[in-house]
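[09:14] KT: can someone run the structure on this one? pasting the chain below
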Amino acid sequence: MTIEDRYRQRYKSGDTPWDIGQADFNLIEVVTGKPIVSCKTLDIGCGTGDNSIWLAQNRFQVFGTDTSDVALEKAREKASKANVECEFILVDFMNNHVEGAPFGFVFDRGCFHSFGAGDERKRFAQNIAAHLEEGGLWLTIAGNADENRRSPGPPQWTAGDIVLAVEPYFEILSLKTSHFGSNSQNPPRAWRCLMKKRHV
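[09:31] RB: done, structure tokens below
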């Protein structure tokens, strides 16, 4: 079963602990703190749309992609209730080009880390670079291997794993330890990595 099939099944069954009903604080802190200026933005694995909606509320032109039609239908309903415009697209990002490129900013929360093989993570990074304009930014929130976890949770990678995958496509601007925005009292540890597309 592919990663895409697994996510489709989990959305259908409702087994989605990552779906917290609000934008992840990591995204909010990076966008408002750097700050990242409003631009055309791609939210990969947007799920039910909370991060896309927050970005749209902050004047970003947002294209959200996911492989789950169930998740995207919920995202459209949420965007309508919030009275914001987002373009939600059913697409497998790893194997398809997303219409609307190039983007100024790409965000993913838990997509990059889903790929177990190093060459797949590298291909994911290469595909993001292909969708970004020159000097465009990518923010990923990924599982952190520095946590000794006894319960199930997101995949875990080291800082070195991230660096190996994103070179030579990106310059890492910041790589910080954090945790996922979560409804749990003990949220999983995460890496918060902001990168800039290298000049080719």
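[09:33] KT: thanks! Residues 62 and 86 are 5 Å apart (CA to CA).
[09:34] RB: yep, looked fine to me
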